[in-house]
Each structure stands twice: as C-alpha cells, then as structure tokens.
Amino acid sequence: MRAWLLLLAACGPKRLPEAAVIGRCDGLMAGAPATAETWAELVTQVQRATLPELDDAEIELVLAHSSSSFLWANVRPSTLLRRRDQRIYRIHYTDDVFDGLSRAGQVAIVAHELEHVRHYTHMRPLRLVGFGLWYVLAPVARYERRTDELPLQAGCGPGLADYRRWQQPRVSPRVARKKRRNYLTPEQIEAWRPGQGAP
Q: What is the pLDDT of residues 139-152, one digit of tens each?
C-alpha cells in the first residue's frame, strides 16, 4: 500500500512551470456574455490576452453534458502520446455557461482552463498519462487552487468569484462541498492579493 501511495504521489504535479508571460484579461470582462455563436471568439481572446505562449497550441472546443462540471480541459486521447507540439488540447464546456453566467465569469473560468492546457503542454506523454491517473485518484485541492492563481494574476479575480457563486447552486450539495474544498471560494478570491499565493 505504501509503495502504491508513493507511486501515485510521483505522478502528481511537481513544481508548476511558470508562464513565460501572463497578460491581463480584465479588459475583456465588460460587456454582454458570450453566446454559443461567440464562444470560440471569446476563448481565443482570453488565450491571446493571458497566455500568448499557447498561440501555437491546437485547442478545440467540445460541447459536453455534465451535471457537476461546466468546463474542463484535457488532451484528445488519440494525440496523447504525440510530441507536445503535435497534440490536440481540448476545452469541454456545457451550454449552462450561456445561462446566467456573466461575461466576467466566462472570461475568468476560461483563463483557468487555459492554465490547465499550459500545464499539459509542459508534460511528456508518460508524465501526462501518470498525471491523469493522479488527478482521478489523489487529492487535487492544492493543484486546483494554484491553477486558480493564473486568472487572479491576470486581473480576473472578480470574474472568478462570479463564476464560483454562479456555479454553487447549479450542482448538488455534495458536489458543491467538494468544489469549495478543491477550489478557491469567492471569499478567498476577494481576499487574495498579488504575491501571496493560493490559500
């Protein structure tokens, strides 16, 4: 059992790679929320504004269905074992994000998911497979809270708080408790200051 736990720990993220450049997304947060027709445009705008190092990454958007998650990122399975620059990365989303979520909330959670994509671009194939196993089986709060730092550093804190408040009543009480445990809460987001790291 101890050996299994050590192996699982080894699959988890080590020190997350620092973004070469973190831009600002706060200039994108005003205005009407994106619709299904303008969603791809919004994602591209957020990527170019916050993480220009992903300019050459192929990212596809996948409409999905889930009652517990509204956006998540991964790698298209058929490209998992390719070189990092030849993979196809995915951001899955449900059409719930077009129902009552502010534009600021959309921008901030897209920035969070793009930060996941950036992490994947730094992983070799076997490391990526191990990370997927670790993510399913191990506690992920520290990792997800550190991933939340990208939208905060990019000026999207108010939007991320909006998203978390919008999300809570749309999931079951059990899932809501898990999300509050794994991600920064609106209160923690609002208390965050540059340079302090994730709580």
A: 999 999 999 999 99
Contact (Cβ atoms closer than 8 angstroms) between residue 103 and residue 29? yes
pLDDT in tens, 14-54: 666 677 678 899 899 999 999 999 999 999 999 999 999 99
Q: Count of CB atoms within 10 A of residue 44's CB?
A: 14
Helix count and strand count (H, E) for the chain: 9, 3
pLDDT at 10 (0 to 100): 55
- Straight-line distance from the first to the last Cα atom of the chain, in angstroms, rounded to the nearest whole number: 30
Beta partners for residue 90, in sequence order: 60, 74
Task: Break the chain into its structural domains and give their ranges.
Answer: 22-191
**Interstrand relation of 58-63 and 88-93 (parallel, antiparallel or unpaired):** parallel
* pTM (2 d.p.): 0.91
Buried b vs exposed e over 116-151: b needs ≥16 C-beta within 10 Å?
Answer: bbbbbbebeeeebebbbebbeeeebeebbbbbbbbb
